[in-house]
Amino acid sequence: MPKSDNALTIFEVLRESHEKQRSFSEKLIKTSGDSPERRELFELLKNELFAHAVAEDRYLYIPLMMSDAGLNITRHALSEHHEMDELLEKLTETEFSHTGWLSLAKKLSHVVHHHLEEEEHRFFQQAGKILPDQQKKELAQQYHAEYVKYLNKDKDSLT
Asked: Considering the domain boundaries, does residue 158 fall inside one?
């Protein structure tokens, strides 16, 4: 997010990460065996999902949970984040050359795509009615700073 672009809302900033998630997951499921390409794409996807989820939880879901209207829509989205975390953990623990690795990756890709589609076409509209315009812009800046901070952090040190 360019510093000069303070007009972006939290939803526009989140969509940028969503595009990366779609791209990485689509490319990942086209890989085979324990290849450098598979390792690199998995690391890119894992980092993207992690940084995105941490920042999104803090700067979209938590502010929304402060209102009754935001509570229910947020619960569902958080449960999907949890499902993705579990699949990432399984993939991390499975050998890249294992026959089941690709089916797990396909399941993750499906969950990611489903979650993003639901977020962009239902959740964002509902959240947009709850959050004031100025807060949407402030949250975009806070999200982006947090996202960049966590993008390449060591995930193991945070558990």
From this structure: no
CATH number of 119's domain: 1.20.120.520
Q: What is the pTM of this model?
A: 0.90
d(CA 45, CA 20): 8
47 φ/ψ angles, rounded to the nearest 5 degrees? -65, -45
Number of residues written out for the chain: 159
Sequence-distant (≥ 6) Cβ neighbours of residue 88 within 8 angstroms: 46, 49, 50, 108
* Tens digits of residue pLDDT in 73-120: 899 899 999 999 999 999 999 999 998 999 999 999 999 999 999 999
Closest to 134 measured CA to CA, from 82, 84, 63: 63
Rounded-to-integer distance, Cα 48 and Cα 109, Å: 13
